Amino acid sequence: MVHGEIWTIKELWVLPNEYIIWAIQIVMYPFMTGLVAGSFVLSSLYHVFGIKKLEGIARFALVFSFALLPGALIPLLLHLQHPERSINVMMTPHFTSAIAAFGIVFSCYFAIVAAEIWFLYRRHFIDHSRYLQSLGKDRTFGQRVLQLVHTILTLGSFETSEESMRKDHKAIKLLASAGIPVALFLHGYAGFIFGSVKANALWLTPLMPVIFIVSAVVSGISLCLLSYIIVSEVRSRRGRRRLGKGKLKGAAPSVDISVIKMTSKFLLIFLATAVSLELLDLVFRGYTALNSWRILKDALYVRDFRNIFILQYGLGAFVPLVMLLLPRLTLRRTVVATLLVLWGVLMMRYNVVIGGQSFSQTFAGYMHYKLPVIPYDVERLKEGLVGALIVFSFPMLLFYIYSKVFPVFPRQPHSPD
Amino acid sequence: MSADIPESMPHGTETSPAVQQQPAESGARRAVSRRDFLKKTGLLAAGILTPAVALEVIFGLKGAGAAQAEGLATAAKTTPHWQFLVDTNKCVGCGFCVKACKLENEIPYTLNASRTWVERHVITKDGESHVDSPHAGQYGFTEPEIDLGEGKTLAIAPEDISKAFFVPKLCNQCNHPPCVQVCPVGATYKSPDGVVLVDRKWCIGCGYCVNACPYGARFFHPKYHTAEKCTFCEHRISKGLKPACVQACAFGARQIGDQNDPADPVAEVVATRRVEVLKAEFGTDPQCFYLGMDAEVR
Ligand code: SF4
Ligand code: SF4
């Protein structure tokens, strides 16, 4: 079987070699990089622009962005026919290709986020390592390991003078500012990868990188908001249970609704921008009605109508837009709205990646995508539902592990749970 | 008309075994890529901030690769520049060329992809165009019905047909190949003789080139899992032989020539007759030229 045949069904006049080559992992790739970029931007809104109300979510978003990073890498590896050769991109980067810079941009971004996190948590590493040490011989094995980890993470710098803290703060601000363009570039150029394929009538538009960036921010903010609410709720419930009823004083506070309201305002702005840009693109294509429009209009308005207009724009944009705009925003409503927004962005990636390959270059035939659900073989595992779920859940696991070392919520010093 | 060709058909006696083709290809590539590698390591640092693509686009500067290719071309004045000529008036749709190609280039007959293929175009009196290429046309067009995919067919009454013809297709070995432009590792490249090749030892299998080719010329090889395409049978033409498809075509619908050879009859046709290329609007500068082309063909 030729690659792509497993999940492609051809109809009418499709060229013999045409298949859906970029499948579900290439849907996941921009989705995950979008989350990375978006959550970084959210954290930078506080660190760079000093939007005070976002303080509570800023650390959270930064660590989340760090945890999501492998999510941008794994789909590509799962997609490559020769993942063992992926290092070739660094060895002989061919810079006329939009993908060639991936390794470099990715490493840059990784370094920036890692450095920012280090400066942000340096004080914490020092304090925590000292505290664990002070426990002396009574330490459990786990505490010993944690102490070692924290000591290593200080990288040998135990300076906590006010002067050095000020310097840390400066460094954070600098890195957060430098990180914004890099994060946007990391994602914008994922859009460029598609937008520059002149052979593909749907992809070819200079708006593509912009649309990708804005929707990235949308998805990143949504995911941060959602997980922030969930994590805060779980923490406060656990805290309440531990202390017993009536002794609410020391428990972690439940979600700060003002943080939620502020963040969702930003979400609204970006969501409205994203939808307007996409609609602009659509209207423009219909108005100019180039040769390709004869198949595009059928693909967009008839064959993919449900995916595009109901699942993406309707459920994924319009409904959450209304939900967030209505007064007296509640937590539950925010949770549902963010889930829908995430769904909408995922559908947008799907409609771009798969939708762009769903018609033939002959403009006279169609290809349907059948997502492999049951992993009978490696190919169906890697580029099927299971592979996509792995890609999505791995960063969540990583975030859980990270959050053990980098506390994402402010907590009392010397009271590790 | 060609339902029962023996499976071992048009494999020429002087043919080199198909397996030898790739080492020759990738050997040449190796030498380039090692030299390239040292250069590019230096370039890497500079490249971080200014990707060559930006330089090329903004200042019209040539990348190292392009400069090198030019150097090679001037060094050997006798280097051919291969061009392909398809005379659609002569094609009868027998599919011998497709079979010969698959045999020559290790593409299984059973694979639903091919380096070259033949299309049948039937335009009915109502102006509708009906096209198919079952099994890339390798078994000829023995059924009058048009293949619609998913097991469906369409019968067209002969009196409804206003015109019908066959169009053989293959990689156009574009002079501005988008497939080469987008390869992130430089595994696919334009060789000095004009043919676009793929290094099976270096391709990472990202599929970018497959999506970037406006002609659907590329697919993944089922065994090597690397990008696969027509090479004009580079391993043959560089030894003075004809490509397998050209040799297999009994009607002379497929021909190959050298643009740099003033005495080449094919090059003369391309230069002096009115020829068409496919999808000129993509700016790829295709090197496959067609006689008797129709506006309906995309
Ligand atoms: S026809 Fe396609 S594969 Fe061949 S050189 Fe042109 S773009 Fe590349
Ligand atoms: S599939 Fe291979 S030849 Fe094609 S762009 Fe990717 S690495 Fe290059």
Written overview of the protein:
The complex is a heterodimer of chains A (417) and B (298). By secondary structure, chain A is mostly helical. Chain A has a domain at 24-196 and 377-408. In chain A, 69% of the residues lie in helices and 3% in strands. Chain A contains 13 helices and 2 strands; from the N terminus they run E-H-H-H-H-H-H-H-H-H-H-H-E-H-H. Chain A has helices at 24-47, 55-79, 88-91, 102-134, 141-153, 162-195, 207-243, 257-288, 293-303, 305-325, 331-356, 378-382, 385-405; strands at residues 8-13, 364-369. Chain A has a two-stranded antiparallel sheet with strand order 1-2. In chain A, helix 2 packs across helix 4. The N and C termini of chain A lie far apart (54 Å). Residues 412-417 of chain A have low confidence and may be disordered. Chain B has 2 domains: 12-78; 82-174 and 216-291, 2-Layer Sandwich (Alpha-Beta Plaits), CATH 3.30.70.20. In chain B, strand 7 and strand 8 (196-198) form a beta hairpin. The longest helix of chain B is centred in the first third of the chain and has 29 residues, at 21-49. Chain B starts with 20 loop residues before the first helix and ends in a 7-residue tail after the last strand. Chain B is of the alpha+beta class. In chain B, strands 11-1-12 form a 3-stranded mixed β-sheet. Helices cover 29% and strands 18% of the residues of chain B. At the A-B interface, strand 1, helix 3 and helix 4 of A face helix 1, helix 2, strand 3, helix 5 and helix 6 of B. One iron/sulfur cluster is lined by residues 171-174, 177-179, 196, 213, 215, 217-218, 229, 284 of chain B. One iron/sulfur cluster binds next to helix 6 of chain B.
